[in-house]
Amino acid sequence: MTVEIVPLTPDRAHLFFELFDGEGFADNPGWSGCYCRFYHYDHQCGDWENEPAADNRTDACHLIADGTMRGWIALEGQRPVGWLNAGRKDGYRAFRGDDVPGKAGDATGIITCFLVAPSARGKGVARQLLETALEGFRAQGLSWVEAKPAKSPETAASNYHGPLSMYLKHGFEIAGDFSEYQNLVRLAL
């Protein structure tokens, strides 16, 4: 499948929400209320599990508007079929602490989440999103990019960080454990 990959910008926010509110979570509606806010959320000041979807959506609007939420949208024609949440590692609250595995400084990008609409899965959309992100990180002058693919994904939903095999095919190396359930992979740019 050939798609056009465009960066998320405030004037494209409607595409992000069209994917999240539409087909993106057709087979996994329980996760639709995240709006990719998890890694931007201050987990020390609240309980993520009890965050209402409406609040996540509103906060995602603000994060997109002020340029904090970064990533790329895959379009088939005018229809959004994929999303990749990726940006500078220090741009996410969740990765700012000294206890974060693989902390590599401010010259590091991180790939956090993929969302590919069920009708577009298995057609290379995630690969195209990843390749665009890598080009974007190089253009920003970043030195490293990291990701945290699941060690043993059991469903498409549990592979939302991207499959390990895809990262390895693109030159990433396993740098250790991000958590009990996730590898930390890293690529020198």
TrEMBL record:
Domain N-acetyltransferase: where? Answer: 3-189
Q: Which GO terms describe its molecular function?
A: acyltransferase activity, transferring groups other than amino-acyl groups
Q: Which CDD domains match?
A: NAT_SF (cd04301)
Q: Which residues form a coiled coil?
A: none
> SUPFAM superfamilies from the xrefs?
Acyl-CoA N-acyltransferases (Nat)
Protein name (Swiss-Prot/TrEMBL): N-acetyltransferase domain-containing protein
Instruction: Please name the Pfam families in this protein's record.
Output: Acetyltransf_1
InterPro entries linked to this entry: Acyl_CoA_acyltransferase, GNAT_dom
Q: Which organism is it from?
A: Croceicoccus pelagius
Q: Which domain of life is it from?
A: Bacteria
